[in-house]
Amino acid sequence: MGSLSQYTDIYRDHREALDGHSDPVINAMRAEAYEALKGKELPDRHTEGYEKTSIEEMMAPDFGLNINRVNIPVDVAASFHCGVPNMSTLLGIVVNDSFHPVGTMLSRLPDGVIYGSLAKAAAEHPELVGRYYGKVASLDSATTALNTMLVQDGVFIYVPKSVALEKPLQLVNIFSSPTPLMAIRRVLIVMEEGASAQLLVCDHTQDCAQKYLSSQIVEIALNANSRLDYYDLEESGEGTARCSSIYARQESGSSLLINGMTLSCGNTRNDYAIEIAGDGCDTLLAGMAIASGHQHIDNNSSVNHRGSHCHSRQLFKYVLDDDASGAFEGGIVVNEGAVMTEAYQSDRNLLASTGAKMHTKPQLLIYCDDVKCSHGATTGQLDQEALFYMRSRGIGEKMARTMLMQAFMSEVIDTVRMEGLRERLHMLVEKRFHGQQSFCGDCASGCASVKKQ
Amino acid sequence: MSEDNQNINKPGNNDDIIKNVTGDDYKYGFVTDIDTDVIPKGLNEDVVRLISKKKNEPEWLLEFRLEAYRHWLTLKMPEWAHLDVPPIDYQAISYYAAPRKKEGPKSLDEVDPELLDTFNKLGIPLQEQKALSGMAVDAVMDSVSVKTTHKEKLAELGVIFCSFSEAVKDYPDLVKRYLGSVVSYRDNFFAALNSAVFSDGSFVYIPKGVRCPMELSTYFRINAAGTGQFERTLIVADDDAYVSYLEGCTAPMRDENQLHAAIVEIVVEDRAEVKYSTVQNWYAGDKDGNGGVYNFVTKRGLCRGDYSKLSWTQVETGSAITWKYPSCILQGEGSVGEFYSVAVTRNYQQADTGTKMIHAGRNTRSTIVSKGISAGHSQNSYRGLVKVLPNADGCRNYTQCDSLLLSSTCGAHTFPYIDVLNDTAVVEHEATTSKISEDQVFYCNQRGIPTEEAIGLIVNGYAKEVMNKLPMEFAVEAQRLLQVTLEGSVG
User: What is the DSSP string of B22-48?
Assistant: First the structure.
């Protein structure tokens, strides 16, 4: 038996406790997910698409689950403040899976906008949450079903019709627990017609030595002509395992940008499943991964075109050092009837040491003839000639290498539409390549303070 | 055939064109009425023993078969390919069918005239007088080698080119040494099946320093109904040798599906070069997708020697379902692997084909150029692996996969796997998918070239990069095949 049974057992044994803490909207899906999991196993290395990351192994250790909603006291204000210069955000903090607004954030939200705990929203707006919850994500995936079966809280973001949020939303996920913990988190984002917003999500670990596992499902529903920029920045510790899936469905004329950046991590698996249901949509999916030590990053993307006249672009870049390993599997699916689709995908990887490994599997599945699709993948090293050029002009080898790697990554950073964040990212990446822990200078999250000591 | 097409075709009328093309007859779909020795359907250890006995095989080969058979029993048919394979009843296939003969033919006069007729129809220069075309041919009908030409001339140079069963008899040491050394019977489901029941095939040995003066060629044909074809080809190029090997295949038209599960093993020693070209034109089923050959083939070459070179070129137009990945294991330092492929699918054909390049030696290089053309309701996939092992410093790979879509109901897919375990490797992959550009067609139209011809022109240009790699004799045939398959199939 695989490790899935330990989770289904928890559900069977603690069903009442789980249901008791949540609302019917969430509980109904819970039962459905339990049914969907019957006869399933968590994907392991023999599962197509998971060759390099075994979710089975990732979830096998005995992690604690906070079923009884024991409050883990964290002084939110003291443990974290993030000062990206020239950027003021509406900040919320998620400790493990429970949401805490910071400062006067809630009072500064425009009318009708909801940004807060998912459990609370399910209680206050059951009809709204019920309309979207579990509708974008697919229970066919065992990891998604597992999350749906056990989830208790998370974040709900709702932007009403034609509302454009000027200030970016920021969400900081912090792991904090005295024991090995599995945090099961759910994020639901609903953009009504013509709405627009920007969201920055930062993942932090408070105690880098502690073992954490995060199971996170993000559902994004983009209604007609809405727009969302989603930046996902992971800076976690070696002991953190992350299993994250972002599902998005785009209706006609909507625009979506997702940029997933992994600066430091333990064992990370990111899934992106974007369904383009409407016509004339625009999608940009970018990813950046910098890994060293024994870090492992696996990104798996699928952009599924159903509407016509859509444009999608994927750009993933990896720099792998030491014994780090990276994996990328990216798919473009163009269904019958999705005419005039333009879909591009590019994956570029740098191996900076002899121990680094990269596995790439870009895929195209095209069922329609009036399309333009391409993908490109390269794996290699820094251009020796460029390196020589710089050295012949008096730049030390280490410096030259760092500069070239930074330049390599700038293509991904340049997709960021928030200027302040872009600058900050350039700085973070530079620091990262200089071998420093990549925490932000002003960030006082626990992870950083541990390192500082 | 192509002339008929042109008569019917009215340029610009796509419906007519499609009907015309899909209505094309499969030219090789005749059945030869010769006496065939078919063993009862089904597969068990006794059948394996019976095949071995019929072929007077030595004990070690029987053991090899039995081990393979026992291993096959433990395996399940692979399902990862992007194919929709109906369940195959392995007990409903006859595993041995041979043209019945009293003794092995001594000269052409003794060969069954019906049989000669068959190969004449196929345009194979089996007869010695046609030898001027400069090709040595081994013809394999229903998995048994019928006649090998030019043997004497080749023997002068020490080149061995004979049927597999002869090789087992005459050169057991060589066969024993190389059989299963590249494709082990444990390799995959179909390789295990083939290892258990293979009936014949070709054996080629090029001794040290010999440059084979002519193209070696094998024609495979399935004739009998209800049979599968399981042949095995083994090519060994010793140090500094060179050989160019061609392979062609056809089958009669039948409503049922026939199974073809072959193995090709190639060993390339120091500085040797092997060029392996295939024009695969098994019966592809009718326009509704009934019948056709299931082509599940394992082809692999081992570049064992330093600076050796192996080049695969394939033109795939036939088969209802193709599952085929000619591969190179680049073990020797500086060895080179190449793969050039044109795969055409139409009607309800399905193809999942590509290559594997395993870089195990230092400074090894590989090039992959794959051109897919899909029409009708077909599904055409490229699936390839490029793997660079940790100790293989300085490797280089370039992969290019292009797909051309000729109808709105077909599919073109690309699944490259790139595993790089060494930081000095440079691996590039590029793939594009598109339909024929209207601008290009318009440009041709403007200059008085009808749409029909313009498409032919564009497709030919598209496939040229691969066609150029084929030996002359095959290039002509391949081009003709492309024409038959493609002319006008534009949606």
Answer: HT---TT-------EEEPPS--SHHHH
Q: Do B433 and A374 touch (CB under 8 A)?
A: yes
pLDDT single digits (tens) B371-415 = 888 888 888 888 888 999 988 888 999 988 888 888 788 888 888
Mark A122-154 as b/e (b = at least 16 C-beta within 10 Å): beeeeebbbebbbebbebebbbbbbbbbbbbbb
> Is the entire prediction scored with pTM above 0.80?
no
Contact A2, A41 (CB under 8 A): yes
Read off the amino acid at residue A345: Q
Contacts of A371 in chain B (CB under 8 A): 405, 433-435
The DSSP-derived string for A40-83 is -----TTSTT-TT--HHHHT-S--B--TT-------HHHH----
User: Is B396 an interface residue toward A (CB < 8 Å)?
Assistant: no
Q: Which residues contact A46 (CB under 8 A, 6 or more apart)?
A: none
| Residue A402 predicted with pLDDT over 60 | yes
Two structure tokens written together for B275: 């060029």
CA dist B147 and A221 (Å) reads: 68
Q: Is the pLDDT of residue B31 over 70?
A: no
Domain range summary for chain B, segments of one domain joined by +: 2-486
Q: Which one-letter DSSP state was computed for residue A46?
A: T
Measure Cα distances from B221 to A325, A329, B280 in Å. 48, 40, 11
- ipTM (interface predicted TM): 0.72
Inter-chain residue contact A366 with B405, CB threshold 8 Å: yes
Closest CA to A305 of A256, A366, A363: A366
Q: Which residues of chain B are within 8 Å of residue A385 when distances are taken between CB atoms?
A: none
3-state secondary structure of B479: helix
**Cβ(A245)–Cβ(A273) below 8 Å:** yes
Q: Which of A352, A364, A372 sits opposite B414 (nearest CB)?
A: A364
Please report, in angstroms and rounded to a whole number, the separation of the first and last CA atoms in chain B: 21
With an 8 Å Cβ cutoff, are B420 and A357 in contact?
Answer: yes
Q: Are A186 and A152 in contact (CB under 8 A)?
A: no
Question: What integer pLDDT is reported at residue A244 of this predicted model?
Answer: 92
Cα(B352)–Cα(A46) distance, rounded to whole angstroms? 20
Nearest-by-Cβ selection for B423 from A371, A374, A381: A381
> 3-class secondary structure for B285-326?
CCCCCCCEEEEEEEEEEEECCCCCEEEEEEEECCCCEEEECC
- Return d(Cα B284, Cα B289) in angstroms, integer: 8
Q: Do B260 and B228 meet the contact criterion of CB atoms below 8 Å apart?
A: yes
A360–B418 CB contact, under 8 Å: yes
Residue whose tokens read 């004799």? B473
Beta strands B200-206; B160-163: pairing state: antiparallel
pLDDT tens sequence across B273-297: 999 988 877 777 777 777 788 888 8
B421, B427, B431 member nearest A378 (Cβ): B427
Q: Are B368 and B400 in contact (CB under 8 A)?
A: yes
Provide the terminal-to-terminal Cα distance of chain A, rounded to the nearest Å.
43
**What is the rounded average pLDDT for all residues in chain A?**
85
Q: What is the CA radius of gyration of chain B?
A: 22
Distance CA(B315)–CA(B374), nearest Å, equals 14
